[in-house]
Amino acid sequence: MSDDEKREPGELNEYHKMRSKAAMKEVQEMMKHPVTLEQAKAQADRVKEGMRRSGRPMKTMRISNYKRLIQVLPFMEQAFDVKRSHWENLVSSDILDIIFVEDADQNQMTSSGSEKSHSKPNDATVTMSRFELFNDQAIDLLLIKVLMWGYPTKGRGKNIENILKNTNFTKLKEELTKYGKKGTIAIDEIRELLKMEGLGLSTLSKFLYFMRLKIDSYRTLILDQRVISALTSGKYSDIGIEEFQNLKYENAIDYYLKYLTFSHQIANQLQAEPDQVEMFFFEYGRNLKGMVPMN
Length: 295
What we know:
Elements: H1 3-6, H2 9-32, H3 37-54, H4 67-71, E1 79-83, H5 93-99, H6 101-108, E2 125-129, H7 130-134, H8 139-150, H9 159-163, H10 166-182, H11 187-193, H12 201-210, E3 214-215, E4 218-219, H13 225-231, H14 256-270, H15 274-283
Antiparallel strand pairs: 1-2, 3-4
Helix pairs in contact: 8-12, 13-15, 14-15
């Protein structure tokens, strides 16, 4: 059990404040006495020696260190701006009019109610959040909005274009509707869906997540390259994370159930939602560095 896990919530907050103050004081002292190149080299040698003796990299962080942060992450409010102009050539006008209805109306009418002569409905922008996607029912609309939320500028290459081809999109809707009625999907069934042109796990896991499908007893979560980078960063020492050391996007389906299991277990430990754990990986996983002594 880590030092953080042994502390009560109030005590934990005070502890982190003390760590922050201590770190700032240390930085201030260092500024008064700049480290020479020789001293920096000696410090690097000490770190290397510590790594050599332990036989592994020095990991200073645990996901549980960020319990308070994870508990308050507003995952339902995570949103992205989408411009209609990016999707004009991929999605029918009827669907776009539904999605951008407020912006289209505002573009068409002046404040007095008269029609604008210079309206540009393709300039419309809408902000999409997870909450809104969870409340969409029509499968056509949901899948397109998930693509827009996940790839506001259509992403790279032609993957989105290939997914939205009539035959591909029709097949995708039929398959996902089938699993939506069951409420569950198996790993082997996901493997079959991944054979569709343009469809990777990053995109498919978004579809499964917003359709609230489960694998075994676990709710599906988004697994994309940013989450994978966090899991394989080597920054964290939480029990179980070592199982992801060989995870790559190309073999991510082989680790998907492990990822769900791990994320749900972490969420239970932290009294948080699995969605918040996933959002932590996405937003912060690669961009944090534990505070360690400088000397």
